[in-house]
Structure prediction request, 610 residues.
Amino acid sequence: MIEVLNISKQFFSGSVNVQVLSDISFKLEKGNTLTIIGKSGSGKTTLLNCLGGLDLPDSGRINCFGTDINCLSEKKRSLFQRKKLGFIFQSGNLLSYLTVFENIVFPLVLNGFSKKDRTKRVKNLLEMLELNLFAKAMPHELSGGQAQRVAFARAMAHSPQMLLADEPTASLDTQTGLNLIKLMCSVGREHNSTIIVATHDNEIIKYADKIIHLFDGKIIKELKK
Amino acid sequence: MNMNFWIKTAWLFLFRSKRSTSALGLMIFFAVGTLVFITAIAVGINDSMIRNSTGLYSGHITGFDLPKTLARDTLLVDGVSDVLQRFQIQGSLHNQEKKEMLTLIAVNPDQEKKVTALWKKIIKGNYIADNEFEILISRATAKKIGVHPGENIIFRSGSAVYCFVVAGIFKTGIERLDHGIAFCPVSILPDLPANWDGAVFLDSGADMKGVVESYARKGLKLSHLKTWKELMPDLTQLIELNRISMGFVMVLVLGVVSFGTACAFAIFIISNIREYGIMKAMGVTPKETTMLIIFEVILMNLAASFAGTLAGSLVVLITSRTGIDLSSFTSYNQYFVVSGLIIPRLTPFLLFLPGAIALSFCLLASIWPAMIVIRQRTADILRSI
Prediction:
């Protein structure tokens, strides 16, 4: 279970305080898919960052699978992210100095998987995502869709309990985006991972168990399917 | 913590960002290579000053008032290349009415010529020949008593009177050699003094302290022995100064280079901050991030320093074959009276010192960019790219 309780976040932009998140609360069952929708600047990415411990809210609590991530030390938060989370960013954000294989294997090494297990997992993922031929390719040699699939493979390689995706289809064409969403949901279900997606994409909404609509940092609508 | 993984990742980061790595590596390469060469020259200058100062006459160790019973061969221990036996006779040199009090030093001319460089400082005439009643005098003495090579001269010591032909006139430029001493062959003297002086010359790189200790073990009194460091405190101080100033130069050069490298390295890390941000998002701890940056610094330094040391050593090897002739800059310097030729030389310590200093500076320099990466929030890093 993920429990978000009254979180707020401000940013200082020049001399102006911008309230990015305001008193956000919601709950999400394990294995469910949550879609956060809203206009640009509504606070989707900030909420996602707070949920993943990449940023800290000014107030409120976030309890992920029994751990209050705001109360963790930097090291413990890193270890929490390493073990339990997987991230997909808008632009793929692959490590540009590592090959496709090395990018996917990175979280597996961090999590102490054996070499045999690592190779098996990466091979399976590459096969499933039809990226076998690109194992040795560098990120700059991939198309947008391929890069996003590698980012997905990297995020799911260690079977995290929660997958956070920030506008994963934004830089993809409709069909590639749709394929990625289907894949994300099916693999997520297979691993019983909780998926939280911030998006503008209406296609993703179809696959969500819960939808949160943000406007100026506030939840204006919460839908359960 | 998987060290091999972080070393491999650091290597991949460096290897695959070729241009940045090459630019940074070249800075370290040139700094280390230049310093290796400069330190070799500094050692060569010190060597040259010692070689010039000891090789002219005194040797590395001088034995005073050694008993006649002590054979010359006794002093030929390990590390000693030659020992010259000299006998001192106090007396006066006469040319008609003119007179000069001096110490006549009876030497073996062939050995002296082979080992010392005094004969190179003859400005008129020739060096003394064995078994000939010849005398070598300084220019100051020749001027004072008004003699020239080929002319006869009288030396009186007590009741003994010797008639010599002036073989040559020398001028070293060193005060203590240019005044009050003259040389003659030992073979022509019927009676030798009870004690003798010895000039001990060491092999290149021999341990002078060890030689003195081995003399002490043979029963020689240390009060009879003086090393060049004791006899020439000015030279000792000069060499120490040279070493200290070289140390300053090394620290300053590497300091300046490291400052440049630090800035370049900061740019390198900041330009790659996206990568560190992604890693942080994947759960890489601050400690692991620091380790990755440190490994990058170490690997780059090891490679660049190794190449720099190799290149510097190669230049030293090439220049040491012919030496670097600085005669035109040292012609009036008493420490370069024999030769102004500098032969660059490297010691094992100095060979690795520039690389070690470069690594230390670069490690210090990497603290700042590492702190930037660690302190910045992952979200801020990812937001900025």
In short: The helical segments of chain A are 44-51, 74-84, 100-110, 115-128, 144-156, 174-190, 202-207. The beta strands of chain A are 2-13, 16-28, 33-38, 59-64, 67-68, 85-88, 162-166, 194-199, 210-215, 218-224.
